[in-house]
Automatic annotation (TrEMBL):
<feature type="domain" description="4'-phosphopantetheinyl transferase">
    <location>
        <begin position="119"/>
        <end position="198"/>
    </location>
</feature>
<dbReference type="InterPro" id="IPR050559">
    <property type="entry name" value="P-Pant_transferase_sf"/>
</dbReference>
<dbReference type="InterPro" id="IPR008278">
    <property type="entry name" value="4-PPantetheinyl_Trfase_dom"/>
</dbReference>
<dbReference type="Pfam" id="PF01648">
    <property type="entry name" value="ACPS"/>
</dbReference>
<comment type="similarity">
    <text>Belongs to the P-Pant transferase superfamily. Gsp/Sfp/HetI/AcpT family.</text>
</comment>
<dbReference type="InterPro" id="IPR037143">
    <property type="entry name" value="4-PPantetheinyl_Trfase_dom_sf"/>
</dbReference>
<protein>
    <submittedName>
        <fullName>4'-phosphopantetheinyl transferase superfamily protein</fullName>
    </submittedName>
</protein>
<keyword id="KW-0808">Transferase</keyword>
<dbReference type="GO" id="GO:0016740">
    <property type="term" value="F:transferase activity"/>
</dbReference>
């Protein structure tokens, strides 16, 4: 399972990689690349598929970061910041930014050049047809989002498109997703771009775009460009 470059045109300073997962695979080799804490985290998953998903994705991330900073994947130093968001602990230089998401049989990894972007977030979701639209909308969507959902020709597609955009933005900000779902409104714009409504002034300057996801999935990328000095 090797990450492949995302084919869509992407914002300057950002690369996205897709990992197509074999959830029945033996990931013992990938497990050796993980730190002890990461192995323990993988072991806490009750389902084998979840353990494979986490292990393969984290090993792929380590491989991509290792090539960026010039070390072996097992030597990549990952630390955890506020809201359990991981970051690269790199002394003596600007560390590449990254964000990861996985769902079903796919994972996405976004890498950001810290000279160009100051934040990056990504999300992918398998679109389940039996989702309770009203329950999700009432929990996670703003009033304007709920009205747009009611008017959508394909409510399921509209829901997932907004959901992944919302999660990508919140992951870029680096806050707990569950606590802030209604702090950001996401609306469809031209050419896959989202129009964002931020309830928190400090979140201004964020951008987000829908990604051309595999069939049955929705995906989005969010970022903040670094201000020129």
């Amino acid at each position: 399972m090797r990450p492949v470059s995302w084919p869509d045109p992407l914002p300057a300073g950002i690369e996205v990689y897709r990992l197509d997962l074999d959830l029945d695979a033996d990931v013992s080799a990938e497990r050796q690349l993980l730190a002890l804490a990461e192995r323990a985290q993988a072991d806490r998953y009750a389902r084998s598929a979840d353990r494979v998903r986490f292990t393969a994705t984290r090993a792929a991330l380590r491989g991509l970061l290792a090539r960026r900073v010039g070390c072996q994947p097992a030597d990549v130093r990952l630390a955890v910041g506020l809201h359990r968001k991981p970051f690269l602990d790199l002394a003596g230089g600007d560390a590449p930014l990254f964000n990861v998401s996985h769902s079903g049989a796919h994972a996405l990894i976004a890498l950001g050049d810290p000279r160009v972007v100051s934040a990056v977030g990504i999300d992918i979701e398998a679109c389940r047809s039996n989702v309770d639209l009203e329950a999700v909308a009432s929990l996670a969507f703003t009033g304007s989002e709920r009205r747009a959902l009611q008017e959508a020709g394909d409510p399921l597609q509209a829901l997932y498109s907004r959901w992944v955009g919302k999660e990508a933005v919140l992951k870029a900000v680096g806050v707990g997703v569950a606590e802030h779902l209604q702090s950001i409104g996401v609306h469809a714009g031209a050419h896959g771009r989202y129009i964002l409504e931020c309830a928190v002034p400090e979140w201004s300057g964020l951008h987000a775009v829908a990604l051309d996801a595999p069939a049955g999935y929705a995906a989005a990328l969010a970022w903040r460009a670094k201000e020129s000095t």
